[in-house]
Write a structure and sequence with these properties.
By secondary structure, this protein is an alpha+beta fold. The protein contains nine helices and four strands. Helix 3 packs antiparallel against helix 9. The protein binds flavin mononucleotide.
């Protein structure tokens, strides 16, 4: 049996070093500092090419095992948009928004995406054996649940007594958390990209996720991560100054 060691050794990149562009720190912080949750939008639509770039930026977010268990649905049909606004409890961040997107976590797609990844590695031709091992063995141990979750629970507990052992995801609720983490990172990329393009957003979890799933025709195990509205802010679109607790309540050193 091949022994798979997940994070062992440093693999040298066989490709020539990528040319990194010069960084524009000020531009980045301008984006971060001016991004606010916008609740009242102007009527103008977001140009399709802007949306396309922001979606591409969202898809470049880091994600667990690169299995990409996420989706973004833009709701464009007027009748569906109306239903989505209702599902968002009629809140102004949705009702005044020219564009509405639903970020969806798809833990149920890990096996399909694992298969796609293996196929892509085969097509690449030069993929290292360790990559195949990861997607043939490790991901299957990590993400298979059902009755196997109980095996893992006991196995990881016993193994974990003596050495560091990955504990999650074990069971379907862990799989939900697993997929939501990566999807939220994609959502964050999306909102920052919109700001970089001069547009604004508001993430929303104040919504009826069951109704949102129904209107998008999503299967039972798909999970609405958040609805994000987008457009151009109006003068009264931001409700107040940004407020955060002192930084030492957030950032700790151990
Ligand atoms: C997961 C999540 C859910 C949110 N849900 C809503 C919502 O339903 N309605 C709303 O107006 N704002 C919502 N917000 C926006 C927050 O209220 C906002 O991010 C927070 O007050 C900080 O303000 P800022 O985004 O302007 O920095 C949500 C934000 C996140 C990250």
């Amino acid at each position: 049996m091949v022994k798979v060691k997940m994070f062992e050794g440093v693999q040298r990149d066989p490709q020539p070093a990528q040319q990194l562009p010069p960084m524009d720190r000020e531009a980045f912080y301008k984006v971060v500092d001016s991004r606010r949750s916008v609740r009242i939008y102007a009527e103008d639509a977001v140009p399709a090419e802007v949306i396309a770039r922001c979606i591409e930026a969202a898809q470049k977010a880091p994600n667990s095992s690169n299995l990409q268990c996420w989706e973004v649905h833009q709701v464009v049909t007027p009748v569906l948009k109306q239903r989505l606004v209702q599902a968002c409890l009629g809140q102004p961040a949705a009702s005044t928004a020219p564009e509405l997107f639903v970020f969806v976590a798809r833990p149920d797609l890990w096996r399909r995406n694992n298969g796609w990844t293996l196929k892509a590695l085969e097509q690449r031709g030069d993929a290292p054996e360790r990559a195949f091992q990861y997607f043939r063995k490790i991901t299957k141990i990590a993400y298979t649940q059902g009755a196997f979750a109980w095996v893992k629970r006991i196995w990881f507990f016993i193994r974990g007594i003596g050495k560091a052992t990955p504990r999650e995801p074990v069971g379907w609720s862990d799989m939900r958390v697993w997929a939501h983490k990566s999807t939220a990172l994609a959502a964050s990329h999306f909102m920052l990209a919109m700001r970089a393009e001069g547009f604004d957003t508001c993430p929303m979890e104040g919504m009826d996720s069951r109704r949102v799933k129904r209107l998008l025709g999503l299967p039972r195990r798909a999970e609405v991560n958040m609805v994000i509205s987008a457009g151009r802010r109006t003068e009264k679109g931001v409700y107040g100054p940004r407020f955060r607790f002192p930084i030492d309540t957030f950032f700790k050193k151990a």
